[in-house]
Amino acid sequence: MSMAVRVRLRVKSRVSQQVIEVSALVNSGFEAESPQILIPISVAKQISLYPPPITSSIMEVGTAGGPSRVFLVRDALDVWVLTNDREVGPKLSDAIISLIEEEVLISDKLAEELGLVLLAIGSGKWRFFDDPPDKIRYSEKPQYW
Questions:
Q1: Strand-pair partners of 9
Q2: Which domain holds residue 83?
Q3: What is the superkingdom listed in this entry's lineage (predicted)?
Q4: What CATH number is attached to the domain comprising 133?
Q5: Alpha-carbon gap, residue 56 to 58, rounded angstroms
Q6: Which of 52, 61, 82, 90 has its CA 20 to 30 A from that of 19?
């Protein structure tokens, strides 16, 4: 069975201090200049980031379905990766709030900050940068919002 790499995250809003745990897709094609996590509007509502704070900005991003407008909230979230044997984080991340995306997505820079190494993307195998070379971790199930 084919699956991408997804990891379990704890996401804490720096605005409201609310916390949510989610399965997130590690998307190496999500290129960003800073650590970013894209969250669907329903996730943003659960941690009181929607409606977005007045400090947010609107930006247009390219997607597989064409251009899309999103809200960018800089330095909005603390993010941890959770596994059965360890917790990595918190790492500071921008929030990108999408009105159309149904999955939480991790940018290339946030994945690197969290120490994620993709081993076999098609079969969902990964490890942390500092795991032993023979340690293989497996993808979480997708979570759609």
A1: 22, 81
A2: 6-138
A3: Archaea
A4: 2.40.70.10
A5: 7
A6: 61
